[in-house]
Amino acid sequence: MKHLFKSAAILLLSTSLLLAACSSKNSGQTPEAGGATGESKGKPKIVNVGVFNAPISFNPLISSKDLSSAEIGTMLFEPLLNRIQPLEFLPQLAESFDTKDKQTYTVKLNAKAKWTDGKPVTTEDVAFTLLLIANPKAESSLGSSISFLEGVNGDGKLEDGKTDIAGFKVIDAQTFELKAKTPTDPNIIKEQFGMKFKPLPKHVLKDVKPEELAKHPFMQKPDVTNGAFKFVQYQKDQYVELAANKEYYRGTPKLDKIFVKIMPSANLVAQLQSGEIDMNYGLGIGNLPDQDFETVKKNANLRTKLEPQVGIQGMMINTKTIPDVKVRQAIAYATNRQLIVDNLMKGDAEIFDSVYPSLSAYQNKSLKPTPFDPEKAKALLKEAGWDANKELDFVVPAGNLIREQSAQIIAENLKAVGIKTKISKYDFATVSQKSLKHEFDLLLTGMYMNIDPDSSAYYHSKGNSNSPAYSNPEVDQLLEKGKSEADEKVRKQIYDQVQVIVQKDMPLLTLYYNPTLIAVNKRVTKGEPRLFGTTYDVHEWDVAQ
Asked: Which among 399, 285, 286, 288 is positioned nearest to 26, based on CA atoms?
């Protein structure tokens, strides 16, 4: 198994954001699957992409909370930068992103970029969007992405009474300047800000109150965008329909339409076989069940590849409802992760603790995964005075077969040591809300990895993905120190310490990390899901007529 990870991107590091989960139980049929009228001459060019995770919103300020929203949203709202390989950042909305001192960054927008209503994309849009993220009244998951800037606090927010960000300066209509609080590794700025910041159209949304923006109709039906494709419609939990933006600044897309079809993971296999979908997105939102890999590989109409993915699977343990660390440790000792991997993934996965897989240069190699030890679990529960009559609320996103089967194995493991659980399955949107409000005891989820090792989103007491409500002042201090440290060796030492403490505190148990099988219909001549930058060149995707 190890060779699969070593052959992947050598510098894929750490984690930062989002809950990749599942949804819908429908078949995901679209009105245009199998042939329909399009905009090109002759037969329209359409690609159908299969996922099991329905998007929650198309709002780029909060899309990092779920991977499906983020990936679909990138075809509508352009990031400043993108990448196909680790640390190889490519210009997208920004044609340049430069620094001479690692503290002041000059960013120049592509002068050809424009909104779908014909208005140019300018630094006014950048300033408008940046101030929304920094506004305490506006809902956003990007605070940590701008917290490096002078003038905002550690959460990326302006203090009361402030209306300007000291570290942001408009130079002209296409150029702006960013100033960090301290010299910072440019790769951190480029990934955390350059790739996640996506401007909104000021001329469309300027009159919307910041506190009302997230619920504004525009965020469900964005009709003014700047990406390669335009929004057409979203049939909830069925499909998202996108049409080519013929005026796209990097070139007219070769496809007429893209349908992102939403369905249970088992249906992905059937629709790949039948040709109803052209590819599974994989990477946390369209993974195929491991037991179906061989079936898919044998299909003569499909080309396949094993691809490392951005998501790792974990179990959140609510520190509010399970405050005794001995009980949380017992849950970890009682969970037979190897059984999950062997039975559900044919051994093709990696088991470790924390959120840094072996792909990451920041994994603490001295740490050994918490072993499966039911007797140790029983002893810890006895020490903690555990009430064997108490039943834990075990929240599981519906739709991902492997995750649902994992939950059954974990529940049986816990029952064997004297912990009762009740499995509650919900759609992704409901799970997200329960996660945000800490309304669970145990919760299965996916976690997203970034190049940068900052794991504040999960481990900081104010982290935006800190579902377990974990709080340790020492960890907070280390994470804050790690974000401001530019020396890679020193940062490695800091995150090594974080992993040691978190393994002991056990606010979450990483279950496994495994590659996913990507299948693409051979009629698709250009375009396929990949670990980085799947939609970077979506305007070049094409199919054989």
From this structure: 399
